[in-house]
Design a protein that fits this description.
Length: about 300
């Protein structure tokens, strides 16, 4: 009987020791797997930051090209004594300069742009075989002429191609990045996307730095995230507009407002009522022009539109 007991005790001790070792090894493996997961996640995050930095650099150059082109266009209209269109372009330039100044930047021409007398008219869009030049960057060595037919094709590609972007909210951003669509869902249909489009007044393909929502008049406009109002004023082109600064240099911009319900310096929370849509400034109808900027540089806001109030 004693022998059987001893055998049972020894067996139990062996099993307990085996289980303890197995638990310890399992614990070590879980810790190792978790550490590996954290390392891989950190690598992914660093790669994401690197890609975003490269994309922002590209967007900054596109924004500079846009400014250079607008300055060239203004010079062209002034030289040709087309005061009305010169004023339209000048108001756009003043808007961009005001926005950039808020974020501590001063825009200046880095490469002169020569503008040809071409203007795209509705009947010309239907007849792409008539080739006429548009913007030409002045360069002593080469001059690249873009024909109207090429521009129409490029515009279609921009509208149809969905480019992957790093300008999206991260799970850790919470309410500090503009993820809220600034209008009620029923009023938030995008009628003009980000990118190149035919300017309704100038009849030229010009970059659209935001999106337009076909909201109609007097629709509530909400702050897209927590932040501080850094600008709330009037521009002859964009009408009544507001800029809210958020986290990490990200900001949201709301233009053509009928009324502004906040003032410069106010703190707002995501979902706060900041104004009502309208058609102030140069506008073809009541809508909301909406932008997201990173370090003052306009990026495609569609990647941020994740929630509705």
């Amino acid at each position: 009987m004693n022998t059987i007991k001893r055998i049972l005790y020894v067996t139990a001790a062996v099993l307990i020791s085996f289980c303890a070792n197995a638990q310890e090894e399992g614990k070590k493996k879980m810790e190792q797997d978790f550490e590996k997961f954290k390392q891989n996640r950190e690598i992914d995050f660093q790669n994401f930051k690197k890609q975003r930095k490269e994309e922002l650099k590209k967007m900054a150059q596109e924004y500079q090209d846009y400014y250079n082109s607008m300055m060239g266009l203004k010079k062209y209209y002034v030289e040709n004594k087309d005061t009305a269109k010169a004023n339209v372009v000048d108001d756009i330039i003043k808007f961009e300069e005001s926005v950039s100044y808020v974020f501590g930047k001063r825009l200046k021409v880095t490469e002169p742009v020569v503008v040809t007398p071409t203007e795209i008219k509705k009947e010309e869009v239907k007849q792409p075989d008539q080739e006429k030049p548009h913007f030409i960057k002045s360069n002593n060595n080469t001059e690249q002429v873009t024909t109207k037919e090429e521009e129409v094709k490029v515009q279609k590609v921009v509208e149809e191609t969905k480019m992957e972007t790093t300008f999206i909210p991260l799970p850790t951003d919470g309410n500090t990045i503009p993820i809220l669509t600034p209008l009620p869902k029923a009023k938030s249909k995008i009628t003009s996307p980000y990118g190149m489009r035919l300017h309704p007044t100038l009849k030229r393909n010009i970059k659209h730095n935001g999106v337009d929502f076909g909201s109609g008049r007097n629709t509530e406009v909400f702050a897209a995230a927590n932040g501080k109002v850094v600008l709330a004023e009037f521009n002859r082109s964009f009408g009544n507009y507001i800029i809210v600064e958020h986290k990490d240099g990200t900001s949201s911009l709301y233009a053509h407002l009928e009324t502004i319900n906040v003032s410069k310096g106010n703190t707002v929370k995501k979902g706060d009522l900041i104004g009502y849509t309208g058609s102030t400034g140069r506008s073809s109808g009541a809508h909301l022009h909406y932008e997201v900027r990173v370090s003052g540089i306009p990026v495609n806001p569609e990647g941020y539109l994740k929630e509705y109030k």
